[in-house]
Amino acid sequence: MRPNFSAASRSGTRPGDGAVAWGAVAWLFVASVTRVSGVWGCAERFVPGHERLRGWPIATVAFYGPNLSQATKAAIGIVPSENAEVEELRDWKVDRGDIRSDPDIAREMLKFIEEHQVRSVAMTDGIIGCPHQEGIDYEGEWCPVCEFWHGRDRFTGQRVH
C-alpha cells in the first residue's frame, strides 16, 4: 500500500499538471501523487487542504543545504507509533546540484518510505539548516563550510544575531 502523501506546496502546482514545483514538497511528496520527470502518476490521491494524520508509522522528512535555495542532503526518520522515538533514520547526499531534482534519489526515498509501510508523512516546507552535523562533521557553534547559516535561525533562515 502506498502511503498518503499530503502536503501543501508553495507553488500552487495542481495534481496532474506535470510540473516540478517548488523544492521539497513538490519534489518528493507531490512526486508520489503527480508527475515528476514522468516517473509517477497517481494524482487522484492528492487532495489539497486534506493534510492530516493518516496513522502510524510516520515518516519525517527534512532537507538541508548550504543556503536556503540549494538542498544537498535529505533525511527521513521513521516514527513507529505515538510517543516513540525515531526507529530508522536514513539520509541521502549530493556533492553538486540540488538533491530535490534527482529522480533516482526520489525513487530511493519513496522506496524507503514504502518499505516501512508509512501511513503519514510530516515534513518541513523548506531547507532547515546546514547539511553538516555538529560534533560529527565539525566542532563548535557554526559549520565552517556553510557560512550562510552563521547567525541564522535554521527554520526561517532569518538572522538571529
Textual characterization of the structure:
There is one protein chain. This protein is α+β, with helices and mostly antiparallel strands and 161 residues long. The protein has a domain at 23-132: Nucleotidyltransferase, domain 5. The chain has two helices and four strands; from the N terminus they run H-E-E-E-H-E. The longest helix has 13 residues, at 103-115. It starts with 22 loop residues before the first helix and ends in a 34-residue tail after the last strand. The relative contact order is 0.19.
Write the layout of secondary structure elements.
Blueprint: H1 23-29, E1 58-64, E2 73-79, E3 88-93, H2 103-115, E4 120-127
Parallel strand pairs: 1-4
Antiparallel strand pairs: 1-2, 2-3
Quick overview:
The protein is of the alpha+beta class and 161 residues long.
- What is the level 1 CATH name of the domain at 23-132? Alpha Beta
Main pleated sheet: 4 strands, mixed
Order of helices and strands: HEEEHE
Show unreliable segments. Answer: 1-48
CATH-defined topology of the domain at 23-132: Nucleotidyltransferase, domain 5
Mean pLDDT: 75
Spatial strand order of the main sheet: 3-2-1-4
Structural class: alpha+beta
Query: Radius of gyration from the CA trace?
Result: 16 Å
Count of beta strands: 4
Distance between the termini: 47 Å
Shape: globular
Our estimate of the beta-strand percent is 15-25%
Helix amount:
10-25%
